[in-house]
Amino acid sequence: MSLTRTTCPYCGVGCGVLAGADGTIKGDPDHPANFGRLCSKGSALGETVDLEGRLLAPQIDGVSADWDSALGRVAGAFGDAIRDHGPDSVAFYVSGQLLTEDYYLANKLMKGFIGSANIDTNSRLCMASSVAGHKRAFGTDTVPGVYADLEEADLIVLVGSNLAWCHPVLYQRIAAAKEARPDMRVVNIDPRRTATCDLADMHLRVAPDGDVALFNGLLSYLAGHDHFDARYIDAHVNGCHAALAQARATDPADAGLPADALDAFYRLWAQTKKVVTVYSQGVNQSACGTDKVNAILNCHLATGRIGTPGAGPFSVTGQPNAMGGREVGGLANMLANHLDIENAAHRDTVQTFWNSPTICDHAGLKAVDLFDACAAGKIKALWVMSTNPAVSMPDANRVAQAIANVPFVAVSDIMARTDTGDLADVLLPATGWGEKDGTVTNSERRISRQRAFLPAPGMARPDWRIISDVAAAMGFGTAFDYASPAEVFAEYIALDAATRPFGRDLDLSLFADADYAKLIPQQWPRDNARFFADGKFYHADGKARMVPVTAPALDHAGLTLNTGRNRDQWHTMTRTGKSPKLGAHLAEPYLEIHPLDAAAIGTAHGDLVAVHTDRGRAILRSLVSDRVAQGQLFAPMHWPRQTARGGTVNALVAPLTDPISGQPALKRSNGVSVKPYIAKWYGFMACAQRPDVQTPYGAISRTATGWQAEMAGSDLPQDWTETARSIARLPKAQPSVYEDRKDGTVRVALSSDGVIQAVLFVSDRPVTLSRAAAVSNVGSSMPPLSALAGRMGKDQPDPGAVVCACLNVGQTTLLDAIEAGATSVEALGDVTCAGTNCGSCKPELARLLARQNLRMAAE
Ligand SMILES: Nc1nc2c(c(=O)[nH]1)N[C@H]1C(S)=C(S)[C@@H](COP(=O)(O)OP(=O)(O)OC[C@H]3O[C@@H](n4cnc5c(=O)[nH]c(N)nc54)[C@H](O)[C@@H]3O)O[C@H]1N2
Ligand SMILES: Nc1nc2c(c(=O)[nH]1)N[C@H]1C(S)=C(S)[C@@H](COP(=O)(O)OP(=O)(O)OC[C@H]3O[C@@H](n4cnc5c(=O)[nH]c(N)nc54)[C@H](O)[C@@H]3O)O[C@H]1N2
Ligand code: SF4
Ligand SMILES: [Mo]
Fold first, then answer.
1. Which atom of ligand 3 is nearest to the CA of 10?
2. How far, in Å, is the centroid of ligand 3 from the Cα of 9?
3. 66, 95, 113, 244: which is deepest, by most CB within 10 A?
4. Which atom of ligand 1 is nearest to the CA of 565?
5. Which stretches of 329-433 are DSSP H helices?
6. Nearest Cα to 706, choosing from 722, 724, 721, 728?
7. Are residues 302 and 442 in the same domain?
8. pLDDT at res. 268
9. Among 553, 559, 554, which residue's Cα sits nearest to residue 635?
10. What string of H, E and C letters represents the secondary structure of 41-58?
11. In this structure, which residues have their CB less than 5 angstroms from ion ligand 4?
12. Is the shortest distance between the CB of 385 and ligand 2 below 6 Å?
């Protein structure tokens, strides 16, 4: 079987993958991002490329249609709106998961042909503060470093980054470097104790949004202890005095950390020349996100620790092509190819190159404003591509209403049903990963090819072509006449050449004569190039700026809600949700809550809680843990309404934004109240087909034998057999019922032709039985009464909650192995195989070992 060399479609690490049509997925040993490694999500890609749930034909008003009708409808609606209300009455909302070719064309169509800059992207929720911070400091949006710096550094400071779960292959590269050089130090700055702490020598539990105070404190410490690089500052940096004065006016105690912890961190930073500061959403997604970025950059600029091997700030990108989107200018306040909308010479050159009838001359609406404009009736036609804003935007319920309020909505997606697609007038079927060709740029500016190894399913077309087809239907055919993504890429590189005289950081000349088919992963401007060691920046005077930043006044009263990611799910779960392996890690939306807060509220581990803010409400499983500090809550962002009724966390989050970048503050919601959610009944079902859950709380997920559902109901049904049949969609299945009135439990098994199709367990308290057992019994021909016992089949021990997703190793198996003498992560791997494939679960293995050893020592 020949394997195709392609790139993982998930995170910004940008790992090379060898993939085959038979489902083979391997890490590409020759790709410089991962050298053969993959994480759990990458390893499970083969489970996500089947056609279940795919959108295979265009749909108009919910009815399948041919392409010409769908394209005509989109072009007509956009054309009418532009004619009647002007170009700013239409908008595109796109995604860092589009390929560069798709992104380039969406931007070209909106900015050069429609003549508006109303194209914004989910990167607004992701990277906008880093972009704004880079531009303020450097004059351009430049990531100075390369991944090798993470291995060469003597100190890595992770700020607001759960690298172990979100950039697992980079985490593994750092872990390997630290093992080879034990003197290397890692500091993790996060209000939560995450899996990433396992690599850290020091965990600073900063107060939410205490980062500006922390880094302002570092800047004044560096100045006070003679660690500024006066030569570098004199030659290359402006604004040092003002930035330092502002830093000195800050009380570092506002970071919420004890003085000795601050001092230890400041000393370590000051004494280590090779420092890389890696930062991500704990920095960007904040009302002071841009200031946080500049507080970090100030420290690197003042010490000249930038652009040299093993030193520099490093904003890691989230999505596979967040960086490519920034390059093509896909944000509402950029033009194209790192050029500026406000600059008339830039606009003229781009318009001439595109030979376009018009060019936008002012910034468009940023994501939150864009959906506000939808709500206010100002947007008459909206096209959403490759993103699911009805779930991922703050104030998600109001965003869903805003989308519904737009007279015409088109959605391009690979899936037939998403929370956003359900609001569309026209659905456009896109080819997905494995079926499409193009390029992506990763966090270290490396451009890699995605290559198709599967045929396009049904009528699906690649996004670049859908955009070109709509453009043609709008009358712009000549400028959008491409036969392949290679032609689009060549035009993008040619635009780079045409705008070279403007002297930007972006330099794609390396790709000028590239053979697209054979393109190998390469960094711009050239491999291993770092920026700024030479002190050449992109402000008009050629210098960098240190920016004075003020630590925000923080109100620590009440509960605050922090949100983020799980190890094995990707965003709104349209793809990772298809994998039983990935679903097994954490199968329900949950709220992490400190034991003291849980006690005060009156909720126990495993209960349900109702969470309220002034925006909305969610019902979540409470996960009581001191991983979160007292007063702080954490909930994952992932669950859409389609798989978790009541579990969409963005329903709670207010659309507060950073004033400079427009990025929403998704990490800190105030005014949160949590109460126990008392249901009349709690249920768990394992079943063969997708269940139909209508209870106020209901979360469904895939399992190895079909599906499972966690439920909580407010009305007691008359008849449990009928309820089970209706949830399992099996009106005629043979029931077996066991009811225990004393302990308030009911169990129903449904079978057809002697095969167990579904088992329902109901209780007046949260159901505690082994999910793995119930799941494993579905599809078997065991006697129904045995299935109702809720235990594993004979000779099969219950493995417990899944820890290693790749090899399906559960917690009970691991604890048994520890008790039998395994004392290290490696030993656990030898005995159980856990952690020996992708390694993403190694931090959890280490934690289990530490916990169990403590317990055994205490006994
Ligand atoms: N498994 C998985 N991996 C992913 C993704 C996914 O969906 N799933 N998505 C990808 C994308 S698009 C992105 S953007 C990245 C995101 O990658 P990360 O940014 O690493 O992930 P998050 O979980 O969003 O947030 C990181 C951490 O910020 C912390 N934090 C919250 N508030 C503060 C604060 O005030 N200060 C500090 N210092 N820290 C704070 C949170 O507690 C959290 O642990 O992940 C990428 N990788
Ligand atoms: N509370 C909270 N909210 C957050 C965050 C947070 O940390 N906390 N993080 C934010 C961040 S950083 C991000 S990046 C966003 C991500 O949020 P979204 O972008 O909304 O999430 P995804 O689930 O990745 O949506 C991608 C969509 O594109 C579809 N798709 C997949 N492949 C293709 C393709 O090739 N073509 C087309 N046309 N469609 C395709 C998928 O089926 C899916 O519907 O969420 C943001 N929202
Ligand atoms: S770290 Fe995992 S999700 Fe990210 S690119 Fe690599 S394999 Fe894909
Ligand atoms: Mo992101």
1. 3
2. 8
3. 95
4. 23
5. 344-354, 367-375, 389-392, 396-404
6. 728
7. no
8. 98
9. 559
10. HHHCHHHHCCCCCECCCC
11. 126, 318
12. yes
Ligand positioned closest to the Cα atom of 173: 3
What is the Å distance from ligand 3's center to 167 Cα?
Answer: 7
Q: Same domain, yes or no, for 135 and 86?
A: no
- Ligand 4 centre and the CA of 318: distance in Å? 4
Residue nearest (by alpha carbon) to ligand 2 atom 29: 386
Provide the mean pLDDT of the chain.
95
- Nearest Cα to Cα of residue 291 among 279, 303, 274: 279
Average of per-residue pLDDT across 540-557? 93
Ligand 2 atom index nearest CA of 391:
20
| Cis amide prior to 252 (ω within 30 degrees) | no
Rounded average pLDDT over 687-698: 95
pLDDT average, residue stretch 77-86:
98
Let me know whether 409 and 500 are in one domain.
yes
Q: What is the pLDDT of residue 605?
A: 87
* Range 214-242 average pLDDT: 98
738 neighbors 712 (Cβ within 8 angstroms): no
Which ligand has an atom closest to residue 147 CA?
Answer: 3
Amino acid sitting at position 778: V
Centre of ligand 2 to C-alpha 556, Å, is 31
798 band by pLDDT with thresholds 50, 70 and 90: low
Alpha-carbon distance of 632 to 78, in angstroms, equals 45
Pairing state between β 16-19 and 681-687: unpaired
Give Cα 211 distance to the centre of its chain.
21
Residues 192 and 100 in one domain: no
> How many angstroms is it from 96 CA to the middle of ligand 4?
8
The answer to whether 305 touches 222, Cβ cutoff 8 Å, is no
User: Are 734 and 642 part of one and the same domain?
Assistant: no
Q: Is a pLDDT exceeding 80 seen at residue 583?
A: no
DSSP 113: I
Nearest CA to ligand 3 atom 6: 15
Residue 568, in any domain of the structure:
no
279 CA → ligand 3 middle, Å:
17
Q: Is 126 helix (H, G, I), strand (E, B) or coil?
A: coil
Given a cut of 90, is residue 807 above it in pLDDT? no
Q: Using DSSP bridges, classify how beta strands 408-413 and 734-740 pair: parallel, antiparallel or unpaired.
A: unpaired
Q: pLDDT tier at 801 (50, 70, 90 boundaries)? A: confident
Could you identify the atom of ligand 1 that is nearest to the CA of residue 161? Answer: 20
Residues 263 and 133 in one domain: yes
| Closest ligand to Cα 565 | 1
Q: How far apart are CA 484 and CA 489, in angstroms?
A: 9
The percent of residues in the chain predicted with pLDDT above 70, rounded, is 98
CB-based pocket (< 6 A), ligand 3 = 8, 10-11, 13-15, 34, 38-39, 41-42, 167-169
Q: Which of 754, 787, 820 is the last residue of a domain?
A: 787
Question: Is any atom of ligand 1 closer than 6 Å to the C-beta of 313?
Answer: no
Place 794 in a pLDDT band, splitting at 50, 70 and 90.
low
Mutate to test the pocket of ligand 3, among 6, 7, 13, 35 (most ligand atoms within 8 A of CB): 13
Domain tally for the chain?
Answer: 6
Query: Which residue range forms the structural domain that includes residue 487?
Result: 63-125+322-523
